[in-house]
Design goal:
This protein has 420 residues and is α/β, with parallel strands linked by helices. The protein folds into two domains: 152 residues, Sulfate adenylyltransferase (Roll), CATH 3.10.400.10; 248 residues, Rossmann fold. Helices cover 33% and strands 18% of the residues. It is built from 14 helices and 16 strands. Strands 1, 2, 3, 4, 5, 6 and 7 form a seven-stranded mixed beta sheet that branches. The mean pLDDT is 95.
Amino acid sequence: MKIIGHGGKEIVERVMDPRQAVDKIRGLTRIPIRDQLAREVVMLSYGFFTPLQGFMTKADVDGVVANMRLTDGTVWSIPIVFDLANEEIDAKRIKQGDTLLLTYQDQPMATLDVEEIFSYDLQKMAEKIYGTAEEKHPGCARTYKYADRFIGGKVTLVNPPKMSEPFDRFFFTPRQLRAKIAEKGWLRSVAHQTRNVPHSGHEWLMKGSWIACHGDLPVEKIVTGIVVSAVMGEKRKGDYIDEAIVLTHDALRTYGYFREDVHITSIVLWDMRYAGPKEAIFHAILRTNLGLTHHMFGRDHAGVGTYYDPYDAHRIFDTISEDDLRIKPIRVLAWWFCPVCGEVTYSGLCGHTKERQNFSGTVVRSIIQDGVRPPRIIFRPEVFDLIMETAEKYGFGSPYVGDEYLAKRNPLFTVPPLKL
């Protein structure tokens, strides 16, 4: 049965059985790829990036940069490109029409059919996608690190990766997550994008969005769910370790803060671009392909520094018609702790603006670093205890990414040996 994703296009899995792939990939030119590209190969191959089935050609990049659309008119906001140095292209005599073997962790991983080799104005790309050309913007910095040229073409996974523990419990392809949603009987489902462990502000963000999503549906039977969609990608020092993020979010369900029948924790492989409104559109596309019907967008979604207004990621959806996006945005203001109300409350309702206490990253970090259980109004005790446990088990003593974690952590996934 066909499964339809973003743009009304069929979700296609480009995944080959390794036993059948051996003869087809023998003798192909090998290209080792870095972590980011390996993650994007996985996402492309399983249909997370539908309608893309591979890395973009120049025409598609032009369309995305100029007017946020692919050549067929489908809305798309972030270039998905494969870069390669001139020296390697020349040394390996790579040309249009070739098929390349992409290797990762010294193992064959996927093939790339070379449809086009092209160069691009990186400053123009940065300015149009991020609204700035400043190198201190992390998205611009990533763009300026691209190699000399790009290769556009379809990819096929020939050696599917094995997800590492504990991520194996939370990785669902679009087909798998859609099946899980159907199994739960959900008619509506709302995505919570996250790179953080959940404090009570996050919890109420999800609960408020669930109420908004459930809306006019009958209450006798629950047919609406929350899908935590944790972003797993490049880590910077000071980020939360990935294991803490997924395990603490799952703990909210385990300990009953969300009912078993309304909550799923999942992961996606993506290196954040911090593109603010443009990345909000991309996140909506991604969760459309995962089968979700709604997506919550809070304050400063996918933003960084002062490059975007806190609610630019809300406003961009006013420029996109409902026909172009098959998912509804839920636009959310801030949740804060109000000492007058004596509870976590919503900034759209609470009038004690002078007394408010925001859930700032600095305050939350100081609470965690103290290692002493805070009031449950800030952190659920089970969640806080699990943060401490994951710090010892996975984080070399800290729930935050440090040099040792970067050097020694278990990878998100491994590519098994494949003998040619």
